Amino acid sequence: MYRVHNEVMSTRHILLGLLAGGPSHGYDLKRRHDERFPQARPLAYGQVYTTLQRLVRDGLAEVDGTDTDGGPERTKYRTTADGKHELADWVRQISAPAPHVVNEIFAKVVVAILAGGDPAAYLLDQRAAHMARMRELTAVKTAPGSDLSTVLSADYALNHLDADLRWMTTTADRLTTLTAEVDTA
Amino acid sequence: MIAGVVSAGSEGPNGRDSSGTRAGDKGAGGSRSGSLRADVRLAWLLTRGSDRREWWRVALTALGAALATGFALAALAVAAIRGYRHIAFASGLLDRPGERSGVVLTLVLLLVPVIGFLGQCARVGAVHRDRRLAALRLAGAGAAQVRRIAALESGLACLLGSAVAAVFCVLFLQGEWRQPPVLLWFGIALVAAAVPVLGALVSVLALRRAVASPLGRVRRVPPREGRGPGMPVPMAALGLLFVGLLLAPDTFGGYETAPVLVFAVVIGTGVGALWLTGATARFTGRILAARTADPATLIAAERLRDDPWAAARTHAAVLLVTVVGTGFVGLREVLLTSLRDRGEKMAASPLSFYTTGIDLTGAAVLVALVITLCGLGVGTAESVATRRRGLAAQAAAGVPRAVLGRALLLETALPLAPALLLAGSGGLLIGGWFAGIAHDGSRSVPYTALLVAPAVYVCCLLAAATSLPLLRRSVHPAELRYV
Amino acid sequence: MTTTNGEPSGGDTAPPLLTARRLAKTYGRTPALRGASVALRAGEILAVTGASGSGKSTLLHCLAGIVRPDAGTVECAGERLDTLPERRLSELRRTEFGVVFQFGQLIPELTVLDNVALPLLLAGTARGAAHERAGEWLERFGVLGQQLLRPGELSGGQAQRVSLARALVTGPKVVFADEPTGALDSLAGEQVMGALTHTARESGTAVLLITHDAQVAAYADRELRLSDGALAADGAETSAEVTS
């Protein structure tokens, strides 16, 4: 759940953003991405490569040259004027509020009621799992020397988990009413 | 859980505060009519719905008003007697105009400690009341309406006291005096009405800051700037002295006294002692706070330094009574010896006439002292009650109750000592001076008067100590539930 | 970590520092606690959560020896708190325990420095030495610059950090914190919680944290949920296992 926003986030814009700092090659971009977004799923190198090719195809980036210092041949990329324009547009665009309208937890609660399962037990387990993840994130956030981007992304996740948690607590308190409603529907 | 999640403060407000707000909502509706009836109903609702402390305040205020009315009416009745009249009681002390003026003056001056007492009563529940009135303002009541409600609250309490006192006074007069002048009845009605009106006016004055804005003193942190030295009590004393001298134009009969000068010394010493209380409170507070390693002394010293004039306000009446008391004890001794020296033949009346007069004055001084001590006790209790949540938190954090209790007593003991010393000296001066006039310097200073100030000191500590059981109850962990 | 309803059952760690068994407490006619059991190990940070009125604060008061339970036992390092005389309890709270409430534990008339030094003064430490120790703690929590102010002049976050300093100045074994961030915005609350948990872990102080806020509870090693004065069977031990 809490990684959803990272997956929805456009990899091509992230890479464009990283390129804004100056020409880089694919492996370097992947490394910097993973450093910068420690809470996100690490980028696969293949994904970086295909994304870069699409950026070149769309005229947002171009090949800067190739490095062959000692190791294998590595293509360097740089952003174009269109790329900079596109990135500026993207940064200014607001994200659609409430992206998690389709809620898996809610779906499971309803299904549990329909199928005669134990939604209360499910909610308690889910709550425990959420709390455990929140503890992990808090530990990451409060670890000595954690940088601001780590703290901010952990905060983002924590607040979303907290929102889920509150919803689960309220739902647990309302299960009787909900059960009656689902059963009669 | 919903409430718990939505607001962190959801556990905070206690029932009392919310009851005040609820009543306030009703008030917003009634305010449009602006009628007195709506205000009276609101004042009644607020009083009825409030906790025990409010009832204490009402009861104590009514008691103070009853005392004030009683003394005022007695003074009025005595002043209304014209010419020579044989009166059955007080050993003929009320028979002649000369002595009567002395009695009138004494009765009027007894109002001084009563005013001090009423001042302490007004403080009972003041913080809670301020918050409640501010809640009324938030609920939409206008400043004038809130002021009216507050005035009605204390006015009604005073009315209760003054009505009771007036009824008893009238019953007594009808029994003792066959045809009192009609003017006296008017006077009685005037006094009985003036006491509640004055009470209401004073409460409006006292609340001028609380009702100024809807947020008023809702904040838990009181304003930093300390209040002034609290001159109302000595000012009131001066005013009453003036009234007393008007009512009793003749000087005391029988002796070569100069009451105006005596009272000037009394007032002067009282004001001096009052100023000294504030100054020493500030000084001892600063010195002790910087040096002491004893937690109780530290807490008391910092409280003194924080608001040095609080001690002065509380002790104003105590100091005046001490001056008068010391002076009186000295005077009494001189008078009695001189009476015995002169013997029966020199005096115009039997010896019992003089001794009764002296004893009655002594009784008046004692009554004043008792009223003053009650005021002090009420003031100390109020200071504990206001701080009870903080005190409970201190106790929970492991500060022993004994330390908190000692801090409470030290708060009274520290500033009072030097002030009582000065007040006692002033009284001695009066007594010694009088002894000088009476005996051409042949007699020594009346030393029994020396005991008055220490005795008053001990009584004050005892009065403050009456709050210790309340302190014990206040540090109960149940108070933490409202933290 | 193996716990069942908060009671210790495993032998892999040291015996618990503070154990409460089947506590019951009633205020007037309202039952605040109905058979709650808790075990707090040395150096552990335990969050007790639950809805308003679930008995969280009463549980803390019983464990800290502020309130005597109507039934059940509280044991701290082999000593029964529920039967100790008040004088000894007061001493225990002063020396072995520290408390942080949402509000009210600082004396408004004392300076920040004196407030923090107070527990030391109560123990008979000289003024200078007490001030020195208090100053060190104030510095640690970043409020040394405010040492001569009165509590009323502090921001909420500063006041709570001063309260933490006062709670920790005697080197207690347990700190009891009742909604320590209840009156703070989230950033100030984060600073207070960060300071509390960091210092507690560093000095091996156990913390019993009462909160209704999951983000605050996430600072703890373990969570116990109270529901109507008893522990909710909500898999507190599951969450504990996930962490450890």
Automatic annotation (TrEMBL), chain B:
The keyword tRNA-binding does not apply. The chain crosses the membrane at residues 58-81, 101-122, 156-177, 183-207, 228-248, 260-281, 310-331, 351-379, 416-435, 447-471. Residues 1-34 are annotated as: Disordered. Keywords: Membrane, Transmembrane, Transmembrane helix. It comes from the Bacteria. This is ABC transporter permease.
From TrEMBL, chain C:
It comes from the Bacteria. GO terms for cellular component: plasma membrane. PROSITE patterns: ABC_TRANSPORTER_1, ABC_TRANSPORTER_2. The keyword Signal does not apply. The keyword Oxidoreductase does not apply. Residues 18-244 form the ABC transporter domain. GO terms for molecular function: ATP binding; ATP hydrolysis activity; transmembrane transporter activity. InterPro entries: AAA+_ATPase, ABC_transporter-like_ATP-bd, ABC_transporter-like_CS, ABC_transpr_LolD-like, MacB-like_ATP-bd, P-loop_NTPase. SMART domains: AAA. Keywords: ATP-binding, Nucleotide-binding, Transport. Pfam families: ABC_tran. This is Macrolide ABC transporter ATP-binding protein. It comes from Streptomyces lacrimifluminis.
